[in-house]
Amino acid sequence: MAVKKNLYTKRESGRAMDEVRPMTAKVGVVPSADGSAIFETGKTKAIAVVRGPRTLHPQHMQNPKNGVLRVNYGMMPFSVEDRIRPGPNRRSEEISKVTEWALSSVVDLSEFPNTVVDVFIQIPQADAGTRVAGINAAAMALAHAGIPMKEMVSAIGVGKIDKSLVVDLDKYEDSLFHDGEGSTDIPMVFTSRTKNLALLQLDGKISIPEFKETIELAKKACEKILVVQMEALKNVNGENGAPKGVPLEGNNG
Ligand code: UDP
C-alpha cells in the first residue's frame, strides 16, 4: 500500500515545528491581589490572580491537615470570534480541575490548615493553548503571593498535525486543521527541578514512538518557558531575592 504523503510539512504560522510562539510574562499586574501574573504566548493571553491563604468557609469544607487550593478558569466573552457565554461550562470546569491537580503537585499548604488559596485565571484573548498559558501564569502568581512551592511548573501544548509533530499549537492547528490524520493536541505540564509530568491530556490519536517524541519536545519547550517565568519573578523580587514562594535552587535545573 502506498504511503500517504504528509499534508502538513510547513506550519501555517511559518514557525519551525518545534518553535514556541513569542512569550512575555509579568508579575504583580493586579496590585490589590496577594499575587498576580500575566503570561502571553502569541495571541493567547492569560491573567492569574491569587487570594489567600484565608480561612475557608463553610467550615465543613476545611481540611485540618492542609490548606485547600481552588482554581477557577474562565474565558472572557470576547476572547474569541464567536462570543462565549459568560459563566462556568463543562470545558471551564474541566480546565479548572486539571489546573488545580497540576498546581497541587508543587504547592505545599501543610502550614496553612483550614485555609483556602484561590487562583482565578482569566483569558482575555484566546488562540489555543489557554489552559497551559493559564497554568504558567498561575504558577507565577502563586510564587508572587509567597505561597510555599516545592518547585515551579511550566506548561506547553504539543501535538501532531497530520504526520508532523509540533510544539505550541495555535487555533488553526488545534481546531481548524482536519486533513490527513487531523490534529492531536497534548497539553503537558513539567515540574522545574524533578522534571516530573504534573499533567498530561490527550485529544486525538498518536503512536507510542511519536508520543515519546512529543514528551521530549514538551520538556525542551518548558525549559524555555521556565526561563521567562523566573525572569519575570526575579524582576519583581530583586536580583538576589528568590520569588517569595519558591526556593531558588528549586528552579535552576
Ligand atoms: N475556543 C473557542 N471557543 C470556545 C472554546 C475554545 O473558540 O468555546 C478556541 C480558543 O481559541 C481555545 C481553542 O479553541 O484556545 C482551543 O480550545 P481547547 O479546548 O483545546 O483548550 P486550550 O487549547 O485553549 O487549552
CATH topology: Ribosomal Protein S5, domain 2
Which outline best applies? Answer: globular
Order of helices and strands: EEEEHEHEEHEEH
CATH class: Alpha Beta
- The secondary-structure class comes to alpha+beta
Would you identify the CATH H-level superfamily? GHMP Kinase, N-terminal domain
Low-pLDDT residue intervals, each spanning 5 or more residues: 238-242, 248-253
Commentary on this structure:
With 253 residues, the chain is an alpha+beta fold. The protein has a single domain, classed as GHMP Kinase, N-terminal domain (Ribosomal Protein S5, domain 2), CATH 3.30.230.70. Helices cover 26% and strands 27% of the residues. A 5-stranded mixed beta sheet has the order 1-2-3-5-4. A 4-stranded antiparallel beta sheet has the order 7-6-8-9, with helices on both faces. A hairpin with a 2-residue loop joins strand 6 and strand 7 (164-167). The longest helix is centred in the last third of the chain and has 30 residues, at 208-237. The chain starts with 22 loop residues before the first strand and ends in a 16-residue tail after the last helix. Residues 238-242 and 248-253 have low confidence and may be disordered. It binds uridine-5'-diphosphate. Residues 80, 84, 91, 126-131, 157, 171, 174-175, 185 line the site of uridine-5'-diphosphate.
Summarize the structure.
By secondary structure, the chain is α+β, with helices and mostly antiparallel strands. It has four helices and nine strands; from the N terminus they run ββββαβαββαββα.
